[in-house]
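step 4 of 6: structure.
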Amino acid sequence: MHKYIGRNDIILMASILAVSVLTMILLRVFTDKGMTAAVYVDGAEKGRYPLTEDINVDIDGYGGSHNTLSISGGKAYMSDASCPDKLCMHQGKVYKGGQTIVCLPNRVIIKIEGENDSGYDAITR
Amino acid sequence: MTAVMMRSQDKLNPVRMTAYIAVMTALSAVFGYAEQLIPFVFFGIPGIKLGFANIVSLIALYVFGPVYAYLILLARVLIVGFMFGNMYSIIFGISGGISAMTLMWILKKTGLFGMTGVSAAGGAAHNLGQLIVAEITMNEINLIFYLPVLVIFGMLAGCVMGILGQTIALRMRWSHDRFFKGHDRFDL
């Protein structure tokens, strides 16, 4: 009977796995900081606030509207909004890269981004 | 080329060999195309593929040797890229394929590992090479966060493809004799 997986194969795969997991842990350790909440109004960037500092930011939205972004405990959320539906306030707290809070009526977007980049700019398969 | 062919293929005559290689190129192109049709999203990472086309690369490496394996690989990437993909799929296909094939060739040469191990390492190298090239072409340092997950998935997919590849190779008369001398042959 043919043997599909030998002992060396298992050692090889286990070591690849170990190196990958180690890399993953190291990446986590060295980069778990420096996330910022970027504020966009009508597509234009209005400011960036690091998640490490607790702060309340008043945002002037589109057409005289008004939002308040709050950052506390490393998470950002919309604590007040002038829009009628308050959907953005119900979107909860965001803190991971790429997460967003969107307030459509006021054209306000809060986006969590890394220190100096903006997530994907291309996807290919 | 002829020398390589004669050395690794003492029994297969050149005409049959040409035919086999043509068929394998076509097969790998079909695999490559069929895979693009299956959307696969793990952990929010788009574009993970199982790499069925690598079965062909693997079998080609073992049966026809590295030169033909590289040629089949390049032909596949170019055919699939020009017919169904774009410039990026060609760049990534070539970078991934060449890194995988090179590592598989080296590991096979050591003689320490079976086909499963060789294929698993090839899968890991495929994604590693692709990611490095993606980092360079797109200038997007954040891609490095995908590295460990991609390498692990590449390895798992490669492992599965290695086992499948052996299953297939054992069942084909023309590959069996070159591959697993002394093992039982399963005839279909």
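step 5 of 6: annotate
 - Chain B has one domain: 2-179.
 - The two ends of chain B are 32 Å apart (CA to CA).
step 6 of 6: archive
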